Amino acid sequence: PTLPPPRAGEQKLFQVVIHGIEPLLETPLQWLSEHLSHPDNFLHICITPVPSD
């Protein structure tokens, strides 16, 4: 499943980062796995809350 992007005027609640890259949320997981996996075939995905400062 894909997450909808924030609507105009809404703030992002979280940030998705893969190896220092913030991919579009519409990017297929299969494509990310094929192109961004480590040599051990793991795809390390970090989902963190956006800082609220």
Task: Give an overview in words.
- With 53 residues, the chain is of the alpha+beta class.
- It has a domain at 14-49.
- The chain contains one helix and two strands; from the N terminus they run E-H-E.
- It has one helix spanning 29-36; strands at 14-18, 45-49.
- It has a two-stranded antiparallel sheet.
- The longest helix is centred in the middle third of the chain and has 8 residues, at 29-36.
- The radius of gyration is 13 Å and the shape is elongated.
- The N and C termini lie far apart (30 Å).
- 0% of the residues are buried.
- Conjugated with ATG12.
- GO terms for molecular function: Atg8-family ligase activity.
- One of its GO terms (cellular component) is Atg12-Atg5-Atg16 complex.
Give structural attributes.
53 residues, alpha+beta, 2 strands, 15% helix, two-stranded antiparallel ribbon
Number of helices: 1
Structural Rg: 13 Å
List the secondary-structure elements in sequence, H or E: EHE
Distance between the termini: 30 Å
Kindly state the mean pLDDT as a whole number?
85
Question: Concise description?
Answer:
This is Autophagy protein 5. With 53 residues, the chain is an alpha+beta fold.
What's the helix and strand layout?
Blueprint: E1 14-18, H1 29-36, E2 45-49
Antiparallel strand pairs: 1-2
